[in-house]
Amino acid sequence: MSQPQTYDAIIIGAGFAGIYAVHKLRDEMGLNVRAFEAGSNVGGTWFWNRYPGARCDIESVHYSYSFDEDLQQEWQWSEKFAGQPEILKYLNHVADRFDIRRSVEFNTRVTSVVWDDESSLWQVGTDDGRTAIARFIISGAGNLSVPKKPEFSGVDDFAGEVYLTGNWPHEPVDFKGKRVGVIGTGASGIQVITEIAKDAAQLTVFQRTPNFATPIGNHPTDLVEEAEQKERYPEIRDASRNHFLGVPYNQVQPSALAVSEQERRKVFDERWNAGGFRLFIDSFQDILVDKKANDTAAEYIRNRIKERVKDPVTAEKLAPKDHPYATKRPPLETNYYEVYNQDNVELVDVKAHPIERITPTGARTSEGEYEFDVLVLATGFDAMTGPLLSMNIRGKGGQRLEDKWSDGPHTYLGTTISGFPNLFLITGPQSPSVLYNMPLAIEDHVDFAADAIAHLHTHDLHVIEATEDAEDNWVQHSNEVAEATLLPGANSWYMGTNIPGKPRKCLVYLGGAPTYRKICQEIVDEGYRGFDLSAARKFSVL
Ligand code: FAD
Ligand code: NAP
Predict the structure, then answer these.
(1) Looking at 324, 359, 377, which one is the last position of a domain?
(2) Closest among 233, 228, 208 to 67, alpha carbons compared
(3) pLDDT tens digits for range 224-242
(4) Domain with 112 in it: what CATH number?
(5) How far is residue 332's CA from residue 349's CA, in Å, rounded to a whole number?
(6) Model's pTM, two decimal places?
(7) pLDDT above 70: residue 541
(8) 330 C-alpha vs ligand 2 centroid, how far in Å?
(9) Region label for 218, one of left (φ > 0), alpha (ψ between -120 and 50) or beta (otherwise)
């Protein structure tokens, strides 16, 4: 058997995170790196989620890398919110431009990541039976990269075609003239339903929880606006990094309850018409923390939904009432609600009448049988912890990450784990991650890891590990911040409740990107407060 290859760092994944990590560590720091990617090419989310209608929910001019000024100047987005094919093209362009692929092994899934106490090195096993060794692991395995397993019995017996939005085929799927069933009305469901409704002979939507979807406001790129933005791109990126969600919005008002009903309506109307996340994050500051303030936005959206759907019974079913606005990630849409005015579309409430099983010809709920030729599962992901827990990670003394996290994730800053030295999580649980514009969140985390590695190198050290105390304090702080918001009151993937048996814990740090970045910077400035830095036991590959 051949000797395992050794690297300074192994990177897992080749999405936004993996691509940037390869560039940063290899090209800027001169490290010997190798990335492993389960897919056959770069792109991550945008490689796997090829379903019709997939597009970003943060404007592309912001939802893109900021690390290279030439890159951000030369790339042109054709739409305000780019679709999946264009985002994938962009990531391929970045991979070409920085010659990323030569450091990536595609079609290679990491199946074990084991710390060796003797050598202070990680041993990484892959699904082709090989082992590789590295001092550092950078996990860019993603937050939304493990689709939820179907919870319904009978899926295997279904006689027609079955598609998962999170693992969509590369070839176009033809819905023309077919009867289609879609389960799920999260952001993926809402996008795919809108597209399938255009072609299908009959579309049955199985909705468990209605969502607060608001208009995306997409349009072809305005070239004048684009030129203006590119002229001050660094300034825009700076403003983004100083905003809760990582976007350069600056119209937010203090409280929905401090203004008259008329004024409130005006603010909501303006944000509704502007599109994107303006209503959610750029209207009133107390929407995520004060139920009464939230109720005003929720009622506004419910009324707008009811204006758009002709049948009052269907409109009522589509109007969310069981969770505050934005406690689930708010989907963005174009003509979603109008779909339900079409004769070929039926909405089935599966909260009132749950799906009992998938049958060979469709689905059976407690109320009746529904027939279709194609089943689309838009049922979400084992988010945040799923990708990490599926890699069999073992830390010091052989401790399994599954055991350490049996009651929910324990991390320091969402980037590191006590007992798992030299392992960096890119946008891990308990970091702002999905409540921060992700490419910027990813760059910040890769830079954090790179700086820590450089710091060790400069000081002739080899191991960095979060202390248990620092980790406990961070977990407590992250939970306290979450408790001060409305998020823990709702069932969502943010809370882990979309997966049966998963601990109910807030998986996202809700202090906002600017506060989080300040905390990280202070920790670094204080010589990596909360981390033990040490020399390696034996040999070093660095
Ligand atoms: P990913 O893109 O998920 O890439 C992770 C990669 O790691 C995958 O390719 C996967 O195959 C690979 N991998 C995982 N485990 C292993 C393993 N064990 N071995 C080998 N390879 C492995 N965020 C936003 O901020 N704005 C948006 O508009 C937005 N839109 C989204 C739309 C969809 C449909 C989805 C699902 C997510 C969206 N997100 C959005 C979140 C999105 O996941 C991030 O923005 C970003 O793409 C994450 O990049 P990443 O590289 O961290 O992870
Ligand atoms: P999701 O938000 O978790 O939605 C899953 C949907 O499936 C929900 O409606 C859920 O209902 C339903 N569901 C799950 N299990 C079910 C069951 N057993 N029976 C009936 N219904 C069931 O997943 P997603 O839509 O894939 O989105 C995940 C995240 O990816 C988003 O929140 C967002 O961050 C990102 N995303 C972004 C975009 C974008 O616009 N850029 C697009 C897609 C995804 P319940 O709510 O009742 O659980």
Answers:
(1) 377
(2) 233
(3) 999 999 999 999 999 999 9
(4) 3.50.50.60
(5) 21
(6) 0.98
(7) no
(8) 10
(9) beta
